[in-house]
Amino acid sequence: MSYQHQYIDGTHIHFPLGKVVCIGRNYAEHARELNNPVPSEPLLFIKPGSCVVPIEGGFAIPDDRGPVHYEAEIAVLIGKPLSRTPNREEVLDAISGFAPALDLTLRDLQSKLKEKGYPWETAKSFDGACVLAPFVPGDAVEDLTAIGIRLSINGEVRQDGSSADMLNPIVPVIQHISGHFNLQPGDVILTGTPVGVGPLNKGDELVLELVGHSSFASRVL
Q1: C-alpha dihedral over 206, 164, 121, 5, to 10 degrees?
Q2: Which DSSP letter does residue 64 get?
Q3: Which CATH number is 19-220 given?
Q4: E strand residue ranges, the chain
Q5: 135 SS3 class
Q6: Spans of all domains in the chain
Q7: How many angstroms separate the CA atoms of 165 and 28, rounded?
Q8: Nearest to 38 by CA among 47, 29, 49
């Protein structure tokens, strides 16, 4: 599998494909729908860049490892190095773009791993576990506290959230992440999913939106 970052106008972004840093349970209602406690600080995990696939043309899901759940998220592309808890202006300067994305999860497997206190990697980092759309430039989004993310499946809206509802807003959470480990150009931040997650099925028709900025039709192959 291969993937290259690009902007919505088709211009390719010449960053190496980096890691995908995810924030778990960043929307309180989503944490509650899965009977998870609401965390008191950002819950971080990482997907390797090798699991990223483009949304265009459709994407495949595993068919032999139990239910695959969708989680629509706002993705942030990092364009400059960040480390040691940078200030707000440095974070804003390092944001290269925003896109809608799907964080895919093998839900039954994840539950079993959590019950045993094991890491989640096999449930969260399988090939194709991050479905990423082209980015709009960072300066195209004026208010980072009011970015809408919406997912429709087979004509029905399943998730409809906003960055306004995040427990950890975009800039502070990037500061938190970069205080733990360096962020490099080409890294992507997945900022959490709103309430409404559920299983995907082969043949599902999807529309994934960064509301007011971009919209992408796709399907499960």
Answers
A1: 60
A2: S
A3: 3.90.850.10
A4: 20-24, 43-47, 52-54, 68-70, 72-78, 95-103, 105-106, 130-132, 136-137, 148-153, 156-162, 188-190, 198-199, 205-211, 214-219
A5: strand
A6: 19-220
A7: 8
A8: 29
| CA distances in angstroms from 155 to 87, 151, 189, 205, listed in the order given | 42, 10, 28, 8
Cα→Cα distances 97→6, 38, 102, 126, Å: 9, 28, 16, 25
Q: What is the pTM of this model?
A: 0.95
For tokens 């709103």, what's the residue?
194
Per-residue tens of pLDDT for the chain, all 221 residues = 457 799 999 898 888 889 999 999 999 888 687 777 877 889 999 999 999 999 999 999 999 999 999 999 999 999 999 999 999 999 999 999 999 999 999 999 999 998 999 998 999 999 999 999 999 999 999 999 999 999 999 999 999 999 999 999 999 999 999 999 999 999 999 999 999 999 999 999 999 999 999 999 999 99
- Residue 169 tokens read as 């807003």
Alpha-carbon distance of 63 to 47, in angstroms, equals 20
β-strands 188-190, 198-199 pairing: unpaired
Q: Write the DSSP string, 151-190.
A: EEETTEEEEEEEGGG-SS-HHHHHHHHHTTS-B-TT-EEE
The structure tokens 């088709």 sit at 10
